[in-house]
Write a structure and sequence with these properties.
The protein is an all-alpha fold. About 85% of the residues lie in helices and about 0% in strands.
């Protein structure tokens, strides 16, 4: 029973990581275009912070995917009785 609860917790936290990181990616892209619109003559430096934020959110999505997979494996193992 304890393993099943831990698996569900991992799966839910993983899904929250994925949803939150998708919002972060959209926010990073929006920030990049917003700063590019504000300073049209700027180069890549103006959009660097938005790109960094989007990349950090992508890493969080990967962590969320791993957590969700581990959680689902724990739940499946508990259901099969192993």
């Amino acid at each position: 029973m304890k393993r099943r609860k831990l698996g569900r917790l991992f799966a839910y936290v993983g899904l929250l990581f994925i949803v939150g990181s998708l919002l972060g990616i959209v926010g990073g892209i929006y920030a990049s275009f917003s700063s590019l619109q504000f300073n049209e003559s700027a180069g890549i430096g103006a959009v660097g912070s938005g790109i960094w934020f989007a990349m950090l959110s992508s890493f969080a999505a990967l962590v969320g995917i791993v957590l969700a997979i581990v959680g689902l494996i724990l739940v499946a193992k508990n259901k099969s009785g192993n």
